[in-house]
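Hi V.,

You were right to ask for the full record rather than a summary. Here it is.
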Amino acid sequence: MVANIENIRKEKKLTQDEVAKYLWITRQTFSKLEKWNIEPTLWQAVKLSELLWVEIDNFIETDTKTLSSKNIDWDKYKQIITNFIKYWADDDGKITKTKLAKLCYLLDFAWYYYNLVPITGLEYKKFAQWPVPDAYFSTLDELFEEKEISVKVKWPAYLIENIENPNHDKLNDDEFQMLQDIAKKWKWKRTQEIVEFTHNQLPWMMSYDREVIPYLLITQEELENVY
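Predicted structure:
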């Protein structure tokens, strides 16, 4: 059962403007969210949970497996995410959502560069800060619900951490090795460095905003610029 956000907000004597500002969204967007015309993202759910003192489960009802009719191996995608957290996270075991999204993108497109097939088959779209599939955020939601990851806020960043040591049995040896190679290369880089790297790749530059980025474009990239 999802929470009645409006009732809880009023009990806390908060206005729509106040909550919207806390979530970094417009009042109009929050009004839609409050009526459940749109669902909160994981990050908005975390913030609502903190502000309203309500368990985060009350703000999540997404099932990643209903997002696509394609034959996606969701368990494999989850293992990619959790293993990047393991091998790329800072010494405290945490990684930001932006860095994590970038690493997953680099792995899929690098694998395509060498094998002409992606690892996940997900469609990545071009947004201001990242190439990202729609399923990225909902998969994080599911991992959070399953208590495989935890999320902590260090505003404006959201830090993600594994709760348990992840499996990687869904990845073959070569896939897992490439994941580790990418993690090792980018481990101590700043978020802006990995953002700039992906924005200078042909797939990003040759794609339109909010449109799907064709995997094939990575095959025109110079080898040293693949990841």
